[in-house]
Amino acid sequence: MKFLSLFFWLICAACEFSATGRAYGHGFAGARFFPATLSTDDPFVANELSLPTVSSIVTPDGGGTRDTEISSDIALRITPKWDIEFGETFITLNPSQGKAVNGFDNLSIASKYEFFENDEHEAVVSLGLGVDVGGTGSKELGADTFSTWTPGIFFGKGFGDLPTELRFLKPFALTGQVGIAIPTSASTRSFTVNDRTGEGEVEIERHPDTLELGFALEYSLIYLQSQVQDIHLPAPIDRLIPLVEFPLEIPLNRGARGETTGTINPGIIWSGKYFQVGAEAVIPINSRTENDVGFIAQLHFYLDDLFPHSLGRPLFGGNK
Amino acid sequence: MKRIVIGFFLILLIESARLEAHAFLQRAEPSVGSTVQTSPSEVRIRFTENIEAAFSSIQVFDASGKEVDKRDVHLDRSDSALLHVSLPRLGAGTYKVVWRVVSVDTHVTNGDFTFRVAR
Fold this sequence. Notes:
heterodimer; A: mainly beta; 17 strands; 8% helix; B: mainly beta; four-stranded antiparallel sheet; 1 helix; 8 strands
């Protein structure tokens, strides 16, 4: 956390007094504005801050444990097409029986490069690499002592190029991610004492490589009003983007192959000039994932709109 | 974390005097996707932010793709977020309006929409 704090202040100091120049937007492809999604990553390289993202759900662990998480993520562009992202999460685990534990999860660091954009077809594709840095989180919480690397590809596609006959489908857009989470340790061993026999036992926890999939299907009322048909929606409805997200995790090996977990997250985002707010229900796809319906909510700032002359600019190469 | 949050909101306060954002279409005349009974004399688009007129444009095309506006895009005298372009008398048909604007903080946005003249 000290590193995150120091980095934040260095960036603030460097950018606040830097020269002014041309600023570029995030989440745009042609006429399409893509909001930041809550449960899956979007393909855009941007200056943005999620503070906070709050989620709560009951997991199957220990006969039912309420997992409440408060996280913050910041993304800053190094160049107009390349960014670096930092994320930290405070977790409270409250089991149905026993004492609650809380603490910080491992620090996550990621970087993304947007290598394809087609404005006419409202399409964007990015490559990214993320790492959960092992050993930086709370031991009481059981944060991994090893790192996990996740290379991935991210995409976004608006349907604004549909024919006029299908014009009311034009506000739809799809974003998604495909990545493989690769732990740097295949398994961890822990020693426990058997309550009945009093003998020591070795437990081996395997850590499989995991295919991470995420999709978000959204319908932009902003796009409907400004590109297709002005149906005179009043504020704040005219800035709403209903969406449904599908984050999925599919273990690939080490005895866990096929034990898919995931959720279906219907929700809504309101996008303003400088920030957006969003909320989604989190509906598990199977009992392996969770026991109950949870929620996720987020306040998300567009740093390039808030600070177009400082924190919102790329550090280098102000031209797109 | 507390320091980061306080710092962020302090900077937000300092910067608030010069806040601008991406310019979205707020409303248009003729309105997006509408049908008008007679030829409009101009297209007017009001954006959510003030516009740099020198770097902004509105073009109007007929169904064959020919530009039909009078190429005289200008800001409204009393409203820096309102852009006009004049039109000749248009015949019945569907017209496409293509806009690209630069807001005063240099964010670029663009879009297009159609309207129909009934007669």
